[in-house]
Each structure stands twice: as C-alpha cells, then as structure tokens.
Amino acid sequence: MRHAVTPLTSVLREPRFRPALVCAGVILLLTSWPRVPVVAVAGADKVVHLSMYGVFAFLTLGASRYPRSGSRLLLAWAALAVFGGLDEWHQSFIPGRSASVADWVADATGALLGLLVAFRSSTPSLSRRDASSS
C-alpha cells in the first residue's frame, strides 16, 4: 500500500531540512528540561534565546529553495516567532519553568537576526555584482 506524500512528509524526507529540524528538536528538548539552573549573569538567558533562534532561523532559511525576498523573509520570521511563542507557552507546563514575554522577544529577535544573516549571505552584494559584470 502506497502512502500519500504530504507537504510534511516531503519536508521530513528532504536532507536539506534536517539541520533545521534537529535544531528545532534541540530547542524543544532543552526547554522541556525542568528546573534549569539559574546563571548569575544578568541577561545571560536572553543571549541563549537569541543565539538558539538565530541559528534555527539561519538553518531554516538556508533549507529553502525559494528565491529570497522581503515577503518570504517576513513569512519565515512570523513562523519562527510563532514557534518561539508556542515554545514559551509549552514551558508554562514544565515544573520549574515559566513562560516569559521577554524570552519570546529574545527568540523573535534572534530569529530576525539569523534570517537577516542568511539573507545577506545568500544575496550577492552590489560590489560583487559590479565586479562580475565587468
């Protein structure tokens, strides 16, 4: 019996999506860990949120075969921000964890920075375009 191919199963079968999927899994695994030790450095947890979602966003945009555009960047950012919001909500059910708007802002900011880096690294700069046309 042959199974229908859905958008989700096709994503799971594509090797280019695996790094982003692994990153999403690591984020969910780490945020499911109850009673995380608190770091004494103020703001350190926000740096972790920013970094994790920056890497996640970079890997997500890197897996896309669609042309990079402002609207695709905005759509990817919105999806990653929703993922971050759902992850924060999920943490409210974990003993010793809590949901935080500030953490979600760090997630969304990290996602935006990661997308911008991925977008910038995949878009030829004006100076590179000028040099190749000469």
Report what the structure shows.
This protein is 69% helix and 0% strand. With 134 residues, it is mainly alpha-helical. The termini are far apart. The model is unreliable at 126-131 (pLDDT under 50).
Notable features of this structure?
69% helix, 134 residues, mainly alpha, 0% strand, 6 helices
Short description:
The protein contains six helices and no strands. The protein has 134 residues and is an all-alpha fold.
Envelope shape: globular
Straight-line distance between termini: 57 Å
**Protein structure class:** mainly alpha
Q: Helical element count?
A: 6
Give the fraction of residues assigned to helices.
55-70%
Please give the radius of gyration in angstroms: 18 Å
Order of helices and strands: HHHHHH
Residue share in β-strands: under 5%
Q: Provide the residue-averaged pLDDT.
A: 84
Let me know the number of strands.
Answer: 0
Low-confidence stretches: 126-131
What's the main sheet like?
Answer: none
